Amino acid sequence: MKKNTASQTIGAQLVSATDGSAFTGSVTVYVTGDAGTQAVGSVGSGACTHEGNGYHTYAPAQAETNYDLIAFTFIGSGAVPATVQVFTSYPQTGDNYARLGAPAGASIAADIATVDTVVDAILDDTGTSGVIVVTNNDKTGYRLSSTGVDDIWDEATAGHVTAGTTAVALTDILADTADMQPKLGSPAGASLSADIATIDANVDAILVDTGTTLQADITAILADTADMQPKLGTPAGASISADIATIDANVDAILVDTAEIGAAGAGLSAIPWNAAWDAEVQSECTDALNAYDPPTNAEMEARTPTAAQLAYITSNAADGVPVTFSGGTTTTAVLALVDGSTASSTDDFYNGRILVFNSGTLDMQVTDITDYVGSTKTATITAVTTAVTSSHTANLK
Questions:
Q1: What is the pTM of this model?
Q2: Contact 237, 230 (CB under 8 A)
Q3: CA 220 to chain centre
Q4: 7: exposed, middle or buried (C-beta count within 10 Å: 0-12, 13-18, 19+)?
Q5: Which domain does 68 fall in, by range?
Q6: How many domains does the chain have?
Q7: Is 142 domain-assigned?
Q8: Of 182, 206, 226, which residue is a domain's last?
Q9: CB count in 10 Å sphere of residue 233
Q10: Could you give the C-alpha distances from 386 to 208, 328, 335, 390, 392, in angstroms and in order?
């Protein structure tokens, strides 16, 4: 078997483990290369072909023959395993040589005779039979064939390094222009005319792009500044000097109109009062008072003690007792402590008495008790401005 060569076959004879007869069942081959790891055959999962009478063959893959020593182990259920070892040989180059003579593989002597006959025929055809070729030093009158010329042009410049030769000159030119060569043409080295055509097309595109875009931008600018263009000069587009003269005249007129103001507004003093200004001031004062929203006369009277209340307060100022509250409304007050003790549980006990508030949002307000419910400690009072809460205190008169 040749090493690393496809399309080869190996076979083995298997017998039954029971009676030694030819084994014709299914057989699988395992391959072991150079005493390595044994693996099932890679072709058809190692399935073998029964050729007859217990002889089974396997066609290994090329890679399975790439060993110096190959062991093919044939295994079948109920068969005695059989291993065939092969030392491979390298295929020789000569295996592919064409043979001389007919048939292939004829003797070398016959092949040499054939070659000799062919050479004789060549000598006859070229008229050189028996001619001795001598050196010809006369090179004039000869022309190179087209093939010879092509060979000269195809000659690699790398092999010619003598200064002053054409090969060296060409190499120097290529080196000096190396950074220019890829710039023009696609692929690199395209003709200069093609490069110029490409540049011309690009320039045309640039002219089209800039001609369209710039014109559109200029038109837009003119449209946006249309309201500004007539402002200076008459007609639009008059000289700048004329525009400046117009501006100067306008400034002079402004100075005349504003001269009466004077320096630092001196001309604005001693301006006489007039009825229109008076009406405006009164209107502003009314608006301010309305925004302030002061209490009405009725609200003030409700908060002012009656003459009798004031007389009672004055005469009993030293007799008042402190009162605290647990809650209430603007017309009720729930008494908590009166003079440090729990308020009375007797109905109407505080009727007619006066409460003088002395803290919080009800400070300095005075009201009277018109009814009292002892079970809830709730006194009905003349309305005050805000609801009575536990944060308020008062004197009871």
A1: 0.28
A2: no
A3: 35
A4: exposed
A5: 10-91
A6: 3
A7: no
A8: 226
A9: 17
A10: 84, 10, 16, 13, 11
CA pair distance 157, 159, nearest whole angstrom: 5
Distances (CA, A) of 80 to 9, 39, 55, 59, 83: 21, 19, 13, 21, 10
| Residue type (1 letter), 146 | S
Q: CA-to-CA distance for 283 and 290, rounded, in angstroms?
A: 11
CA dihedral of residues 194, 195, 201, 203 (deg, nearest 10): -160
Encode the chain (397 residues) as per-residue pLDDT tens digits: 999 999 999 999 999 999 999 999 999 999 999 999 999 999 999 999 999 999 999 999 999 999 999 999 999 999 999 999 999 987 655 555 555 555 555 667 777 877 888 888 888 887 766 666 566 666 666 677 888 778 887 787 777 778 878 878 878 887 777 666 555 555 555 666 777 777 878 878 887 777 665 666 677 777 777 666 555 555 555 677 777 888 888 898 888 887 777 776 666 666 667 788 889 999 999 888 888 877 778 877 776 767 776 666 656 555 689 999 999 999 999 999 999 999 999 999 999 999 999 999 999 999 999 999 999 999 999 999 999 999 999 999 9
262: left (phi over 0), alpha (psi -120 to 50) or beta: left
Under a CB-based contact definition with an 8 Å cutoff, are residues 335 and 323 in contact? yes
Give the integer Cα–Cα distance in Å for 313 and 396: 10
Which residue in the block uniquely carries the two structure tokens 């050729």?
A: 51
- 222 plus 303 within the same structural domain: no
Q: Is residue 143 part of a domain?
A: no
Compute the distance between CA of residue 38 and CA of residue 85 in angstroms, rounded to an integer: 13
Residue 161 lies in a domain: no
Q: Is 357 inside any structural domain? A: yes
Q: Looking at residue 74, what DSSP letter applies?
A: E
d(CA 181, CA 178): 5
Among 173, 204, 226, the domain boundary falls at 226
